[in-house]
Task: structure prediction
Amino acid sequence: MLRLTLAQMRRSLGRLTAAAVAIVLGTAFVAATLIAGDVMTRTAYDAVTATYGDADLVVRQDSSLTQEQVEAMRAADGVVAVDPMVVGWVQLALGGRSTTERLLVVPSDPRLASLEVSEGAVPAGPDEVALPVATLERLDAALGDTVRVDWTEWSDDEPEAQVAQVRVVGVVDDPAQAWARYGGAGLAPEASVLTWSGWSELEGAYATEAVVAAAPGAVETARAALVAAAAPDAQVVTRDEAAAASVESLADGTNVMVSVVLAFASIALLVAALVISNTFQVLVAQRTRTLALLRCVGARRAQLRASVLLEAGLLGLAASGLGVLVGIGLTAGALAVLARVDVGVPLPTTVSVTAVAVLVPLAVGTLVTVLAALVPARAATRVAPVAALRPSDAPAVGARSGRVRLVLSLLLSVGGAAGMLAAVALARLGAVDEMATLGLGILGGAASFVGVVLGAVFWVPKVVAGIGRLVQGSSPSARIAAANTVRNPRRTAATSTALLIGVTLVVMMSTGAASARSSLAQDLDQRYPVDVLLEGLDPESGRTDVIDPAVLRAVAAVDGVRDLVPVRQASVTAESTDGSTWDGVVFAIDPQDARRVVGNEPVLDALAADVVVLPDDAGVGGDVTVSGRDQSWELTGAGTTLRTAGAPTSVGWVGEAAMDRLAPDATETLAFVSLDAGANAGEVQQAVQDAVGDAAVSVVSPAAERAVYEQVINTMLAVVVGLLGVAVVIALVGVANTLSLSVIERRRESATLRAIGLSRRGLRWMLAVEGMLIAGVGALLGTALGLFYGWAGAATVFGTISDLTLAVPWLDLALVMVVALAAGLLASVLPGRSAARTPPVAALAVD
Result:
């Protein structure tokens, strides 16, 4: 049987090529998805943990690290270096110019560096510093120049101004944009950073994190030793674990990266299985007469079944291997293209291929091909040889098998949809682990989609017939084409389902991506409600101070700045009637002004004259007594009773009238700045810093930090676009395969039409109308299904985000419909030419 199988494969090379193409593309999609998923996760993790450099471990605790704790960790087994995350803030001056700068400690190990010294040397002495290019430009300084550092030391509660002359020995670069929020940062030795920032010891810096470099192969040893050496409340995590926690915090406890990768991989497996199964079933069904002839010459049923399955296994294995190589090539090509486009996030330049990315597609492609051949092979061997040898059209749906198929389709569709909706509800409640919820959603979606595809033979032809009645009056060829689509429900359903699968996938991904982007944008608005924050400081005491109006005018005139609103702030205590209290800072802003510069909609909606908006987790509610405090946290007078409103915010918010009662002496020590749409946050921040000049004003850009997350999202969507491109190709090849095989199957039918007078042009137009009609219906139904699955998937993956937005990508939908109709037309060109060129007498002959 092996020789017979190989001989059949050689004789059927043309037909096998159609199935092989579907297998190659299906497995390539799976491989590309798995590899791209690793790229997405690695890129996102690197972006959100860029401040840790290439640290092996991160130590986190609630209280400030002490020098004793750091020394104990440095002495732990397996540890090479430990650096506390000290971030200083210093005042630099040269000539008539001055600026503020964030300073980091020079790392004790190169792996712990989040900045690079691109020119000059790493600071080593107590009077040496390395600064970013932007800071040097503001000071009009150059490498080798001496700049002045001003700071304040406190002695017996009295401030003493201090000055030091330091030399610029290096120029630093921030390739990962780790410190973009602060407009960059410089480097200096630890003792210098502490001294120039006015801290006498490490505890004054309130560093709650430390980065650790472990010895080669000793990460777990170092981790165990650090747990014993660190404070009782400390956590020792790997860089990837810290990244996962940061990503989860972005989506309220859901690891979006893992969820998206798993969702893509599962969908890729499903679409590959459906496309391969659909194409191979048509192929095997066309060989029913050949199998029957073998039965006539003595082959047993078991031998024929084994021959078909062996053929499927060999084809699946060879095509899947090629598909894995194609998937690797697609991913490498996508990375090469993205490398030429400034996506704002460092991407790997080479493809990292894992065993999973090779073995899973290989196994899936082979297994699915064998399973796809199992049912038609079994059906072909059960047909009587003499009956199978008689020329006939493909069989219609039998009554008994039709009922079973219909019941199974309904059970899968309804049950799967119920599972998806249950997953959405559980995700919204957040009561179940997100992996369990995601698994339920994927299982429900797969089951319902399989049910839809399984039942396509019942409902797709009816939809095609309904739409066909609208076009059948245009020409005789169109009338025949409309009739052809309903003469054989199995053939029509198989052809339309190929595109339905691809379109559903494309629309689902596009809808899910659009919904995810919109929802995450709202979440980022709540976490980073202000684009740029200015805070006035007293150079002598380091405490907040009123911002000079001239500085505000200069900032407002910067290109890219849309609006600027001065803001008062005060420290307060809010006490509820049950005695619970909340201590924190409140901002005072007029609700109308707030809408110009604040992006947190829940805060804006809740602001009112008699309301204090507090964080959701403040622990107080109802009517509260809010009392102002001075900068020493002493109560300044009688409290004011206000109603509370919760919002996703880290500070309190009140109106101007309420602030007049809470802290009448509060001055405008803050300014909120909003940027023009499309403005580069980093460039505008630098321009704002230049406008501030030598004024004692801190410039912080939450928009720059937000931009990091947006760049991660944009990179994810860029990968999605690449995957969608593969999905479109799969859909087009699926249509071309099934339509071509359908035309081959109908050679005698086409010859009969030619024999009774249909012209070659009419035959080609008949096939074109049929192709566009079936493709259009598949695209229309796939669009409806894709919207439903896309919304359900977004609601499951991002369910914990309070204001989930379900978006409709109208442009993508229109493009999908145009491509689908074009695909149906193009898929009919080659089969139409072949059918038109074949002489009627030759086509009427029996194979």
Observations:
- The chain has 28 helices and 20 strands.
- Residues 392-399, 631-638 have pLDDT under 50 and may be disordered.
